[in-house]
Amino acid sequence: MTAAVIAAPRPGALGRLSDALFRHPGLLLALLLAPPLLWLGVVYLGSLVALLAQSLFSIDEFTGQIDRTLTLSTYGELLRLANLDIIARTVLMAAAVTIADALIAFPIAYYAATYARGRTKALFYFLVMMPLWSAYLVKVYAWKLLLAKEGVVGWVFDALGIGVVLDAILAIPVIGGPSLSTSYLGTFLVFAYVWLPYMILPIQASLERVPKSLVEASADLGASPRVAFRTVILPLALPGVVAGSIFTFSLTLGDFIIPQIVGGSTLFIGQAVLIHQGTAGNIPLAAAFTVVPIVVMGLYLWGAKRLGAFDAL
Amino acid sequence: MTPAVRFERVVRHFGQVRAVDGVDLAIEPGEFFSMLGPSGSGKTTCLRLIAGFDQPSGGHIEIFGERVEGVPPYRRAVNTVFQDYALFPHMDVLDNVAYGLMVKGVGKAERRAKADRALAMVQLATHGARRPSQLSGGQRQRVALARALVNEPRVLLLDEPLGALDLKLREEMQVELKALQRSLGLTFVFVTHDQGEALSMSDRVAVFNEGRIVQVGPPEEIYERPRSRFVADFVGGSNVVEAPLAAALGGPARLASLRPEAVTLLAEGTAAAGRMVRVRIVDSQYHGATRRCLVALEEGVVGARLAVAAPAARAGGFAVGETALVSVDPAALWPIEDAG
Amino acid sequence: MPSDRKAPLPLTIAAVGGLLFLHVPLGFVILYAFTTEERSYEFPPPGLTLKWFSAVWDRPDVWSALRLSLEVAALSTALALVLGTLCAAALSRRPFFGREAISLLVILPIALPGIVTGIALRSAFNLADIPFSVFTIVLGHATFCIVVVYNNAVARFRRLHGSLVEASMDLGADGFQTFRHVILPNIATALLAGGMLAFALSFDEVIVTTFTAGQQATLPIWMLNELIRPRQRPITNVIAVFVILVTFVPILAAYYLTRDEDPAHRTGH
């Protein structure tokens, strides 16, 4: 049994490479990180920088060419009433959608985290994940079907004899319109529907992380279920709500498809961006518009981090 | 004879922390060598340095005379039994055991035969087709052992392998490991924080504290002739007797270690040769075969406490709060250095 | 936090109602694929027919859109698998300077609204004079698919005990052998799940694609055009049913593959 104490490295370059990587873990780390960092750095960050650079250029009104001198005049354009209108509209919609989704998602998430067990829980989870991942356009399209004047929703209201109610709703200024599928109400409904899974999952995750012993302790100390919910469970679930709201807010801010398919003729930020960079060729303005959601999300994320929402991700 | 493992002024820092702070040792071929110490004392780091998972920041390490700094673990003829067994969950037991042979290119038939033999050596011959998740803790530990031994390493390293087992199983495994080591004649390096384990299994024990070896020697020497306060206290829970107390007990006036079993507890009024000191029983614990009492002196160094251990039958009659006498053979006061 | 009591009735109703709200609209899409009415969304449908399913075969625009979608999804998934796994492997080891920043960078393409990614890429293509092609679409898709693979891979790497790698090396396997025999088998299902989710994501994506596709149409772009200027509405429904099915399968598979893991990681977010 006089085997060599130290075996020779495997023959060939692989053997020597393995030894070198073992001795220099930093080298291994660098090799692992280089491709993804190069990609993300060049493709993604590079494009973002290009975008921001574009927002500092301006468009010459007469020639339609992009003037590459640095200026803040394009941002100044954003302050025009029509554009401020667009921004305000989008932000308000994002807020409304977030609140609605939080309210709808909470019971679902609460039920799944608290009362669903084994197969039911798995089923719940799957039922929520499915719409999350599949066919965004199909979902939008589905609502266009439902909300159309001759579509399902109208039919249901008529069948129940409350067609008048629907007309009354549609008559409300601002959020109403000629039909559900061409009103803010419709846009709101579709947004809320499409982003709902993004809200359910983080809330469920953070609820599941509340240790059972905490609820038992609060009961032991004399709290009724309602008080326990308000003082123990809700605060602990809040990071999940904030995490979910990051998605609903961010996704609404940048979306241009839903407002176009189900909505009025007024613009949201996403549509403004699309229009300006399209035939108008006004990329600087489009870029400036894009910076708005980035800034809003940046502030939102910063605030969320302070509330500890990132633990729920 | 070339030592199986030799450390020469080995140092290992992690930033400011000196996990290993100047260790010299020489492990003889064929011996069962234990590294004993509290958590953080550097014993596990030393084991990892032998295995190759860590490289020393300074000093040299030799295995059977060959310098091994910079040599990765997969090229050392050393194998490890890990604390959490580290069995590969995606392979069955036989493939786990045969893994080391497989990566070296040994043919399928031969490695299966060798793996079967290794499993038989740890009494798990029939479990080859099972998955690690289907085994109990004790069984997994044996598989880990077989997996290491099948490669015929020159040195076997064991990193607190019995820590997760319950008492009965642990004691059985201790006997088996010792027998295995004897029959194979392999050098075993065993890390543990359980001094009872180290004493019962080893040929020699190295006691670690704060990155250094404070004493090396056969178990009897470590236990009966500790060199320092730390060793006296850590190994066997000895009384560390300061000079005045030593004098009061009839010995030379210097710092000494006094094993609890060397203190005799006598009823008041007993006549005996040698110095006797009156004490009060402060606490009394029943440990089945023995009884451990804590007594406080009522004369000499008043208030000083001593731990006393005696067969339960003899010490049973003393109740807490009573007074009694203790007598100590001065030769049992083993002088120690102050340094830990 | 699981409770042993039965759920209060209003809660159960709210929960089930919410789930229905999620799924019923999709049901209607499937229903409308069979309607005989071609020009509107009349409910209830005047008649039911299967003819649209065969009519789809005769639409060459559908076929080329489908082909492009599959091509883009396959390429993007492959790229994302490599890049995402490399990244996850690097970030699961010992902490190092800049680790937090890098994990933020990986998440950014999905954290920022799609329109940002889309227009950023487009303006970069403009500046660099890169013409639109499959290549540009893949560039966009791979970028946001990386995070999906990354999340699944990282979750699995964290469960892989470091001692397994050490044990493998201790037994004589060098880095490459350890990767092949120990690491890869243990992360394979997570990578598969991540890849499937990435495929589904890419197949379905429309926002970034609008900006990076030029004149070409992936299936979602085709659908978007149909929504704005419909030709035969039920055909769109048939395609919608098809898309639901195509994305249903990988998601189901990915779900089964990662069943034991922490739910928060599975969404890829």
Detailed description of the structure:
The complex is a heterotrimer of chains A (313), B (340) and C (269). With 313 residues, chain A is an all-alpha fold. Helix content of chain A is 73%, strand content 1%. Chain A has a domain at 73-133 and 195-312: MetI-like (MetI-like fold, Orthogonal Bundle). Chain A has 14 helices and 2 strands; from the N terminus they run ααββαααααααααααα. The mean pLDDT of chain A is 81. By secondary structure, chain C is an all-alpha fold. Chain C folds into 2 domains: 8-49, no CATH class; 59-266, Orthogonal Bundle (MetI-like fold). Helices cover 74% and strands 0% of the residues of chain C. In chain C, α3 runs antiparallel to α8 (175-204), α4 crosses α6 (134-159) and α8 packs antiparallel against α11 (233-257). The relative contact order of chain C is 0.14.
Identify the overall geometry of chain A.
extended
Main pleated-sheet profile of chain C: none
Largest interface: A-C, 114 and 91 residues
Can you say what the CATH homologous superfamily of the largest domain in chain C is?
Answer: MetI-like
Question: On the 0-100 scale, what is the average pLDDT of chain A?
Answer: 81
Number of strands of chain C: 0
Order of helices and strands of chain A: HHEEHHHHHHHHHHHH
The biggest sheet of chain A, with number of strands, parallel, antiparallel or mixed sense and barrel status, is:
2 strands, antiparallel
Q: What global shape of chain C is seen? A: globular
